[in-house]
Each structure stands twice: as structure tokens, then as C-alpha cells.
């Protein structure tokens, strides 16, 4: 039974690594796209990490065994809108045919809503591939709980 549990942990961590790698690549593509649209000071929102260390008695020192985010961040990028100088808050998603409301975490929805109410331009950037990218202004018309947005419906 222990072997199966260890195997499941390894599977989850491999999946997590794959998802993180995909997310990093998606954010890199989105950052270049936003700059190509003319947005200024496109900067990723940095995440603080807690480093997990384990003491290695053979080497008589600790080694890093993992890391976990200290807290959830509100989005993926900030920028300045060209011409107006308005603050821009950006959330990036990578899906194939549609983005479902449930693909957004509650803290992401809250951040988009709060910043929109404060007067910021909020964007939901959808990256399907390095050449298929669309940006939607938040709030997205017709998008909400138990709703989705299809790629072909975005102008």
C-alpha cells in the first residue's frame, strides 16, 4: 500500500511540474503579446515562496526539497495602458476551445472585480498557442458562474 501512495505523490508532482512549465511558457507568450499591443511596463506579478529544507545527515547540512507559494497572487501581470497611463491588471489562461468560469480561482475573480471597480483596465488573456492569443476586457460579457467563453465568440 505504501508503494502505491508514493507512486501517486510522484505522479502528482510530475503533473504539477508539467503544468508549471506550461504556465510559465504561456505567461512568457502573453507578456510578449501585451508588449506588441503597446502596453507599457508589462511586468509579472511576483510570488513569494517558502523554501522547504530537509536535513541530510550524510552531508551534515540541509538541502532544498521543495517550495510552496507563500500566498496566492492576484494576477499574472501588471502594465500601463498606452496613451491614458491607466493601470492594467492581467490574468492569463491557457485553454483550448473554451474558458469556463470554474477555470478561474475565486481569488482571481475577486482581484479582477476589485481592480475593475477601482478604475483599472482588467484583461483576461487567453493563449491557445504561440500564435493564437486573444485579450478580453473584464468583465467579459456573458461570462459568469456556470458559463463559458468559446474561442470563436471572441472578437
Describe this structure as you would to a colleague.
This protein has 155 residues and is of the alpha+beta class. The chain has a single domain, classed as Trna Endonuclease, Chain: A, domain 1 (3-Layer(aba) Sandwich). 30% of the residues lie in helices and 35% in strands. It has two helices and nine strands; from the N terminus they run αββββββαβββ. A five-stranded mixed beta sheet has the order 1-4-5-7-8, with helices on both faces. A two-stranded antiparallel ribbon has the order 2-3. The longest helix is centred in the first third of the chain and has 35 residues, at 2-36. The chain is globular. The mean pLDDT is 85.
Task: Tell the overall outline.
Answer: globular
Cα distance spanning the termini: 52 Å
Instruction: Indicate the CATH class.
Output: Alpha Beta
Alpha-carbon Rg, integer: 19 Å
- Report strand %: 25-35%
Instruction: Tally the helices.
Output: 2
What sequence of helices (H) and strands (E) makes up the elements? HEEEEEEHEEE
SS elements, strand count: 9
- Structure class: alpha+beta
Show the helix and strand layout.
Blueprint: H1 2-36, E1 40-44, E2 49-56, E3 61-69, E4 77-80, E5 87-93, E6 98-100, H2 106-117, E7 121-129, E8 132-137, E9 148-150
Parallel strand pairs: 5-7
Antiparallel strand pairs: 1-4, 2-3, 4-5, 6-9, 7-8
Amino acid at each position: 500500500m505504501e508503494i502505491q501512495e508514493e507512486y501517486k505523490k510522484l505522479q502528482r508532482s510530475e503533473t504539477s511540474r508539467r503544468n508549471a512549465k506550461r504556465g510559465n511558457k504561456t505567461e512568457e507568450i502573453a507578456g510578449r503579446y501585451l508588449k506588441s499591443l503597446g502596453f507599457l511596463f508589462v511586468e509579472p506579478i511576483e510570488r513569494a515562496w517558502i523554501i522547504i529544507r530537509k536535513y541530510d545527515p550524510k552531508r551534515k547540512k540541509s538541502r532544498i526539497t521543495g517550495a510552496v507559494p507563500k500566498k496566492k497572487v492576484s494576477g499574472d501581470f501588471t502594465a500601463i495602458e498606452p496613451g491614458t497611463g491607466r493601470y492594467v491588471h492581467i490574468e492569463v489562461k491557457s485553454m483550448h476551445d473554451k474558458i469556463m468560469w470554474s477555470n478561474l480561482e475565486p481569488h482571481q475573480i475577486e482581484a479582477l472585480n476589485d481592480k475593475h471597480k477601482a478604475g483599472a483596465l482588467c484583461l483576461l488573456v487567453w493563449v491557445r498557442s504561440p500564435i493564437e492569443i486573444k485579450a478580453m476586457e473584464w468583465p467579459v460579457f456573458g461570462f459568469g458562474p456556470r458559463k463559458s467563453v468559446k474561442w470563436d465568440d471572441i472578437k
